[in-house]
Design a protein that fits this description.
This protein is mainly alpha-helical and 333 residues long.
């Protein structure tokens, strides 16, 4: 009990410290902010979800005391509680007696466990990232008394920062600042999603190395399958063409997060479809390098592959065990 309490306190304070340091705005501080949720996730995955929950509460309290209630609320919504919730879901499992024949396990033994599907974890990650950005945007709109006023203020501040460099290129600074303000929520949603997924992966690996991971490590290429209804959320990205303002930006923000989730599914599809290729490692390495160096076009291509795989089960056609349940058994209910 004392050990678990110590882990919760340490995780909460470590997460709070990472968040507070990120307020300095330097490149190193920004990088550290990317791992703000990691201590809470390690506590939840390695020591139980109650340790993670306590760490989230302690971290939120610490940030609130240090930076005020507004940033405390942002810490809770964007980092602490999404990190705890995803970790909690990752450890969910149910008995699956229907898998006995698949696994070859003795009938007299305890039935195997069916763990929470990776696709649903990724779906939750996209939803939580979208929610955090939408809440932050709503707070800004309320603070400035409306969307138009908030947009003008944010554009004006950005124009003051970028005005001279942009003018030297012949671009209208006002129009460029407005474009950046419109795109920023989309980029934040996509980045927040990647942050949550990366931290969850790191928390799992760290827990596995320290022999504290209670679930078997999943086959990510085989198991990452988003729900069939998720492509509809990506279609929200076309709504700004018809609805300007807060509704349009909000819809595009949700679409950006889920499009990034489908890019992960597209990457998983590439891993499965290249199995058996002699140049598989070179192909996958090229995909990763090109995606990192010339964003966002490769990411868009991966998103399209992920959408096609979700609708037409490309991986399942190639390898019948590639599905939302890597064991090939009954889906989670």
């Amino acid at each position: 009990m004392m050990k678990t309490s110590g882990v919760a306190v340490s995780a909460g304070l470590a997460a709070a410290l990472l968040f507070v340091v990120s307020a300095k705005g330097t490149a190193v501080a920004t990088l550290m902010a990317y791992f703000t949720a990691l201590p809470i996730m390690i506590a939840a995955v390695g020591f139980g979800h109650l340790s993670g929950l306590a760490g989230a509460l302690i971290g939120t309290g610490a940030v609130t005391l240090a930076l005020g209630p507004v940033l405390g609320a942002f810490f809770a919504i964007a980092f602490a509680f999404p990190g705890w919730w995803l970790s909690y879901l990752a450890l969910l499992a149910r008995p699956a007696p229907e898998l006995v024949a698949v696994t070859g396990q003795s009938q007299s033994a305890s039935p195997p466990l069916l763990w929470y599907p990776l696709g649903r974890l990724v779906t939750w990650g996209a939803a939580l990232a979208s929610f955090a950005v939408l809440m932050m945007g709503t707070a800004i709109v309320i603070r400035f008394g409306g969307y138009d006023k908030a947009f003008d203020v944010m554009s004006g501040r950005l124009e003051a920062i970028l005005g001279l460099p942009v003018k030297s290129t012949g671009i209208n600074p006002s129009e460029f600042a407005g474009l950046v303000v419109r795109i920023l929520p989309l980029a934040m949603a996509a980045s927040s999603f990647i942050m949550l997924m990366l931290n969850l992966w790191l928390a799992g690996r760290i827990s596995e190395i320290s022999h504290r991971l209670i679930r078997p490590w999943p086959s990510v290429p085989d198991g990452l399958m988003l729900p069939r209804w998720a492509p509809a959320l990506v279609l929200l990205g076309v709504l700004p063409l018809f609805a300007d303002g807060l509704i349009g930006i909000g819809a595009a923000t949700v679409a950006a997060a889920f499009a990034t989730a489908f890019a992960l599914q597209g990457l998983a599809t590439a891993h499965v479809l290249t199995r058996g290729f002699t140049a598989r490692r070179a192909i996958l390495a090229a995909i990763y390098v090109v995606t990192a160096m010339i964003m966002p076009w490769p990411l868009i291509a991966l998103t399209l592959i992920g959408l096609v795989d979700c609708l037409f089960s490309l991986r399942f056609r190639r390898t019948p065990t590639s599905h939302s349940n890597p064991t090939g058994g009954t889906p989670w209910k």
